[in-house]
Amino acid sequence: MALLEVSDLHVSFPTPDGVVQAVRGLSFAAEAGKTLGIVGESGSGKSVATQTIMGLTRGARVSGQAMFEDKDLLAMDQKALRSVRGDEVGMIFQDPLSSLHPYYRVGWQIVEMIRNNHKDISKAKAKARAVELLGLVGIPQPDRRVDDFPHQFSGGMRQRAMIAMAMSLNPKLLIADEPTTALDVTVQAQVLQVMRRLQEEFGTAIILITHDLGVVAEVADDVVVMYAGSAMEKADRYEIFGASHHPYTEGLLQSLPAYGGVRERLHPIPGQPPSLINLPGGCPFHPRCPYVMDRCRIEEPPLFEVGGNPTHTSACWLTLDLVERTALRDKVVGGQLPSPSRP
Amino acid sequence: MVRFLIRRVALGVFVMFVVTIVVFLIFFVGPGRADVARTLAGRQATPATVALVSHRLLLDRPLTVQYWHFLDGLLHGNLGYSYYHGQPVTTILKQAFPVTLSLALGAAAIWLVVGVLSGVLSAVRSRSIWDRIVTVLALFFYSMPSFVLGLLLLYIFYYQFALHGIHIFPGAGYTYLTADPLKWFEGLVLPWITLALVSAAAYTRLTRGSMLDVMNEDYVRTARSKGLSENRVIYRHALRSALTPVISQFGIDLGVLAGGAVITETVFGMPGLGFTAVHAIQSQDLPVIIGVVIVASAAVVVANILVDTFYAVLDPRVRLH
Fold first, then answer.
1. Residue A103 and residue B226: Cβ atoms within 8 Å?
2. Which residues in chain B have Cβ-Cβ distances shorter than 8 Å to A117?
3. Is B317 within 8 Å of A112 when comparing Cβ atoms?
4. How far is CA A216 from CA A18, A178, A225, in A?
5. Cα B95 from Cα A204, distance rounded (Å)
6. Rounded to 5, what percent of chain A is helix, strand, coil?
7. With DSSP H G I counted as helix, E B as strand and the rest as coil, what are the percentages for chain B, rounded to 5?
8. DSSP A69-122
9. DSSP SS3 for B254
10. Set of chain A residues whose Cβ sits within 8 Å of the Cβ of B247
């Protein structure tokens, strides 16, 4: 059984303009020692989904289930959730500068986290642990830097300090919400490496939320592609990059520049993501889909198994046979997509 | 840090120096200067007597001479003598300053606590019934002139109480702390409330706005993700940052108030700096006016230095140069 199993999660926000349906029937599972990548554009509901599970969204209507071990996180009161947050689930966020409190020393913030959840640990011991953790994430001279303020750290160091803090209590699950988006590429690689090393060492499950397919390709074991609040396609990393089924996944891959390949124009997905207040009928992607059929405008497709593979599902009415799907792809979008190949 | 303080103090002294020049100039070009000697000499004085009085007070000398005389005295710790009762200005100030300081510090403590706490409550339970009640009360007291509130309090807690034989709060005057601490306290309660409620309203609004901003900061979300209790998130993480603009406003308000709360002191007949200034201005008593102005501007200058220094304590990113 998976460590965290989210099923049929719905999150909506009542606003004066109407109800924003941020997450619509999302299901996913995170397993110990593995990384789940959740990919999607801004506003696809990927951050809202995980923050709602942890009780960090306010004023939302929530339904569904989020079983963490044997407890439903969505049914817990704030007090019970607090003991899960930090202690069992660590979180890191997009902007490492604004995510650390500017007025408190980095070490103080880590010590606060440790002592809040384990009051029996002495201040000196917690501080020693903070130094150890900073060393673990590769901060040079951790015994000195522990007394620095966040503004004395570089962007990459701040994010590593955030990771050190999130990992300070050996959580079973680490939710990383766009952890590398605000960092430059070389620092990105370092941060991802630190996360992977900690995962190998402690067997932590990681949920990695990102809009960057490059990051997903690097670290994710399984991938959920989200659009307009629901999952479009779910598969392991190789299937997503080598044999994707959903036209939205295909569009995302096409809009990536080819690495070292032929230089050509990028192919962005035409149009804009839909308003979450006024979703189009049928499949939410149909106004932008090059394969759109009559049925797509009326009926919203559920997740179907692709090519008889139970771990690969796609919410699309197109043929589920991979050979037919490839032929159709060549007919509609031509040779724009690198031909599927398993690495 | 030391260099910062030296520079700021030097700048402050310069500001006060400019202020005294301006006050002198206003007095010199303003109306009423000629009447001082006439009033002092009495109704039936001959022109010769008036001229003599005028001469004694240096009023017949050029402005520069008068100013030089004042500056010479100032540097020797002498602010001159009141034209009217011949008392040294320093003595007048020494009597008035504790009155104003008692009023200002007490009121400031009340309004800071009331304003910040109600502001936090209002922000944390934003749009709740509490928020609305606090907002309405804040607007009510914010738009209430202190002379109206002061008179209202006097009417209820002095006049109506006295009619029913209850004598807790005096109607006017001031008892020095050293003379009778209980009477000092009783006499200050109504002025404190008057001054505090009017200002607390502004602090409620300021704290509410500042807290609402900070509660949306990423580091508040981080604090929650650490599993901290909501109280710790609000007071330790959010309020710490939200207080920065409040503190700077507080320092300046307190500085201004230390120069005299003219209206409140007048309503409650408290012989503080504001009260003294009003009387001095009415009778064109230049040495006293200048004395009050010097104390008031010194208070503002000191408050500003304290605020800037406190900033560095509050926010580690600020370094004083």
1. no
2. 227
3. no
4. 34, 11, 11
5. 71
6. 40, 25, 40
7. 75, 0, 25
8. TTEEGGGS-HHHHHHHBTTTEEEE-S-HHHHS-TTS-HHHHHHHHHHHH-TTS-
9. helix
10. none
The residue-averaged pLDDT of B154-182 equals: 83
pLDDT digits (tens, 9 = 90+) for A16-43: 989 999 999 999 999 999 999 999 888 8
Cβ-contact A279, A263 below 8 angstroms: no
pLDDT tens-place string over residues B20-68: 888 888 877 776 666 777 777 777 778 888 888 777 777 777 788 888 8
Cα radius of gyration rounded to whole Å, chain B = 24
Taking the CA of residue A29 and the nearest CA in chain B, the distance in Å comes to: 20
Pick from A87, A103, A113: CB nearest B315:
A103
Helices B181-215, B239-258: axis angle to 10 degrees equals 140
A:B CB pairs within 8 Å: 70
% of chain A beyond a pLDDT of 70: 95
Predicted TM-score (pTM) of the model is 0.81
Please give the structure tokens belonging to residue A308: 């008889």
d(CA B32, CA B38): 10
Please, what are the domains in chain A?
4-223 (3.40.50.300), 249-336 (no CATH)
**How many Å lie between the alpha carbon of A12 and the closest alpha carbon of chain B?**
19
Please report the ipTM that was assigned to this predicted complex.
Answer: 0.85
Residue B209 CB-density burial (10 A; 0-12 exposed, 13-18 middle, 19+ buried): middle
B230–A contact, CB cutoff 8 A: yes
**Domains recognised in chain B with CATH numbers:** 2-75 (no CATH), 89-314 (1.10.3720.10)
Lowest average pLDDT, out of A132-146, A223-237, A310-324, B307-321, goes to: B307-321
Is pLDDT at A339 greater than 70 in this prediction?
no
For B320, residues 6+ apart whose C-beta sits below 8 A from its C-beta are B1, B4, B308, B309, B312
In whole angstroms, what is the distance from residue B100 CA to residue B261 CA? 7
Radius of gyration of the CA atoms of chain A, in A: 21
